């Protein structure tokens, strides 16, 4: 019996669904609006959608004007306790290419409730984007890897391409990139859906929870890796930027004036360039096909699309703010005071640490705050140079963009709030500390 879409009840998070007309319920539904066309662990797998840390009973990939649906027939046969899904697997195995259209009578009855679930959940998660319409031509397979010969495409489902991470991927049968279409095989990949079957106990589905309980469940399910990657990246970058910015500012004031203009332009230019341009230039200079990039690979330290690349991107875009603040502070120091120190026999190092740094500390602290904020919010250069690898290079700004693109607006809003609150607290702390240091120095001078 066909399932009426109006009878399907979806929970408030859009992840679980039930209907009395279906033999099973749906849990852990996720819509992936975007995938990645980059190599995974150094191997090109095609255009891949990240499923997560577990396999899924149901996977769907929307391509052009049709969609390809994978169902785990063995799992569903065991859950439903019927032979219907075994018959589906046999029918699909005998079909050309291992896939048949959903309107085939042999499988229509068993598929109708899954298709109805997917259409209802996908419509709820689309947020105005394209979804699975009732007129979409749907192909079905029970094989985790099969070729759709007419389209020249190979679909792979539940593939553990990286340790602990499962993917669904689409690649040309000849191994070509289906996004580029260089070999004549091209597909417009729209999105992917993933979910599992479940049996919700009566009265437990979509139970009303208080705000604290709902928020606690949200935090339990949240992937915290973007926060740790961001903190590690920003913390490392700000230490490097602080040291390099001070040294560059001090050195630029000791060279001839004409050379100063050139050095200042070089040090400042990342501040006025769009972040995507900075990332693209770094990719051209340090890519795997460049001498520098190849050298890093030869020494066993591949730089591009790795965590060090996130640090490098953050350093490049935030360095000018630190440099300009430090240089302006050093230029404002009375030169006669520095000359007097030299006549007393002070070394340049002692003058720098005992005289220049204390006098310029307020401006240096301000520059540190600005550089920190810039590194914390870096997006464009990081995406170009380091990519979007969960737990490795996916920082909070990158997570906000991709979570929003995947329809996870609540996760994107949470990370946005975290960035705002964290930035405010750090800036407030440094400003208070800088003010206290300045007040102490003034009292010392008055004494």
TrEMBL record:
Gene3D superfamilies attached to this UniProt entry: MetI-like
Keyword Transmembrane applies: yes
Alphabetic keyword roster: Cell membrane, Membrane, Molybdenum, Transmembrane, Transmembrane helix, Transport
Membrane topology designation: Multi-pass membrane protein
Xref: Pfam families: BPD_transp_1
Every ABC transmembrane type-1 domain range: 227-431
Transmembrane residue ranges: 235-253, 265-287, 299-323, 351-373, 412-433
A molecular function GO annotation: molybdate ion transmembrane transporter activity
Coiled coil: none
Keyword Cell membrane included in the entry's annotation: yes
Protein localization: Cell membrane
Gene Ontology CC: one annotated term: plasma membrane
Record family assignment: Belongs to the binding-protein-dependent transport system permease family. CysTW subfamily.
Name under which the protein is recorded: Molybdate ABC transporter permease subunit
Species of provenance: Slackia faecicanis
Lineage: Bacteria, Bacillati, Actinomycetota, Coriobacteriia, Eggerthellales
